[in-house]
Specification:
By secondary structure, the protein is of the alpha/beta class. It contains 14 helices and 19 strands. It folds into two domains: 274 residues, Cobalamin-binding domain (Rossmann fold); 189 residues, no CATH class. Strands 12-13-16-17-11-18-10-19 form an eight-stranded mixed sheet. It binds zinc ion.
Length: 494
């Protein structure tokens, strides 16, 4: 008889310092497919679920679709919403008792009253399927618990940041399942961590400490019996006791000792090089001083000021004002800022109409502690429905939607204000509202790292700025309640 495989996804990167709540509607607004709809939507896509479906087809596995849901990074989802999501995932599994479960999870989720939803879900599934396999793909920003590792048979974290390999990791998970079914392997996870919680500012996999850790992982994966090594650098804004870096080695059971050695060796190395995760960055005044001195250089292109602490992709509201305030003060010709999330201001601009001047209260509404609204006189330069095709390496020809959007000019600076909260990750955001990013002198972008693929080729220089927001790389700014102390870098540790 054909094997029956349940598939699903519940994915949220939770930032407890985010002023943005995560009700059920936030999931519905982003991604929520239930039951057979999942197959219609994901078949053929280069996503984790697409890879699971492909593998099922190749192996003649019968698919039991559960739920595929994701919400944009924000505060913990409420208890009722979490119960709903978990029920949608578990009910089909309880009914069908599948031969295996393949899930695409995030790893840094937190819900009201539940510190480790991924572990909670894995445990609940295992209580239904027992010895039958549960395999997970996860984001390398996951904060992983030992309980979660005990309750699944294999973990496949992304190897790339920016993340471009969710499809490939899911293919690996499916291949692992195939090998389990054939009796070739019986996997087990070896978990290891240190009291370290690096900020996310220097976690890219193309430079910095992650390069060395991944090199080590590839060396260990070449040894017999090692199936996969997952480097979880963690997400420091979840404020959970298990937050931070962890290494999980998935290996054939008879190689458990080797797997434990692998996780320990890489964790030790991460501890030794932990200072490399830190990065000193200038505040708005220093950053704009730097920008001013760079503007006269003959290298073409704009100086880009990245408002990294307010990255909507990490839980930022997208409406903080400190960097924007300083930019407006300097009144730089050919300067622009995107994307400021402020539906109220957009409505005001629409009511005024293009070409009209008004007094606006821009931003600072979600959490005034991260910067008060800016009271400015501005001219409505353009109104749009906010929909455009993003052709950059991040957008890949997909339609993006900022919601109703206004460009408001204050002095010589054009501000792109949107009704939907999204990160400024593609230079086509500026082009879509008539601003040529390559011809600008200075651009403010609200993003941490994903903007680089699109903006680096046209930028003269990129400056990351240290100002208030839900995802500031200086973790000392936050009032943590739930960490196990001491933990680096908040506490002095050698
Ligand atoms: Zn991530």
């Amino acid at each position: 008889m054909n094997k029956r495989i349940a598939i699903g996804m519940i994915s949220h990167e939770t930032n407890v310092f985010s002023p943005i709540s995560t009700p059920l509607q936030a999931w519905k607004d982003r991604v929520m497919f239930i039951g057979p709809e999942i197959i219609d939507k994901a078949r053929g896509s280069k996503s984790a679920i697409g890879a699971f479906l492909e593998a099922a087809e190749d192996n003649d596995w019968e698919v039991i679709p559960t739920i595929v849901a994701a919400a944009t990074p924000s505060a913990p989802t409420d208890a009722a919403t979490y119960r709903y999501l978990k029920d949608q995932l578990l009910t089909p599994i309880m009914k069908s008792k599948p031969d295996a479960v393949l899930l695409a999870m995030h790893g840094a989720m937190k819900a009201e009253g539940v510190d480790d939803p991924e572990g909670d879900i894995a445990q609940a599934i295992k209580s239904v399927i027992g010895q039958r396999p549960l395999l997970l793909t996860m984001d390398l920003h996951g904060n992983i618990t030992e309980n979660m590792c005990r309750n699944c048979d294999g973990i496949f974290a992304y190897d790339t940041n920016p993340h471009v390999d969710s499809y490939e990791r899911a293919q690996e998970a499916a291949l692992c399942l195939q090998r389990i079914f054939s009796g070739e392997i019986d996997p087990v996870n070896a978990y290891q961590r240190k009291p370290m919680m690096p900020p996310t500012i220097n976690m890219r996999t193309s430079e910095g400490p992650m390069v060395e850790l991944h090199q080590l992982a590839r060396e260990w994966e070449a040894k017999p019996g090692i199936i996969n090594v997952s480097i979880f650098s963690g997400f420091p804004y979840a404020d959970v006791p298990h937050a931070g870096l962890s290494i999980i080695t998935t290996a054939d059971r008879q190689y458990l000792k080797l797997a434990e050695q692998c996780s320990a060796a890489i964790t030790n190395r991460a501890w030794e090089i932990k200072e490399q995760f830190l990065k000193q960055i200038p505040n708005a005044v220093q950053g704009l001083d730097q920008a001013a001195s760079l503007m006269s250089s003959p290298v073409p292109g704009p100086v880009i000021l990245a408002d990294v602490a307010d990255n909507p992709g990490g839980g930022g509201s997208g409406d903080t004002t400190e960097l924007l305030r300083e930019l407006l003060k300097r009144d730089i010709p050919e300067s622009a800022a995107a994307i400021i999330w402020d539906p109220e201001t957009v409505e005001q601009a629409i009511a005024l109409g293009v070409g009209q001047t008004g007094t606006f209260n821009i931003g600072g509404k979600a959490e005034p502690a991260y910067g008060q609204p800016l009271v400015v006189k501005g001219k409505v330069r353009l109104l749009s429905d906010g929909r455009f095709i993003a052709r950059g390496p991040v957008g890949r020809g997909m339609e993006w939607n900022m919601g109703k959007t206004a460009v408001i000019q204050v002095g010589q600076t054009k501000i792109v204000v949107s009704s939907l909260r999204i990160a400024c990750n593609d230079a086509d955001i500026f082009r879509s509202v008539g601003i040529d990013p390559a011809a600008a002198q200075v651009l403010l972008v609200k993003s941490r790292g994903h903007f680089r693929a699109s903006f680096e080729p046209l930028a003269k220089h990129i400056i990351e700025i240290d100002e208030p927001g839900a995802a500031n790389p200086n973790l000392h700014r936050y009032n943590y309640q739930n960490l196990v102390r001491p933990i680096w870098p908040l506490d002095q540790m050698s």
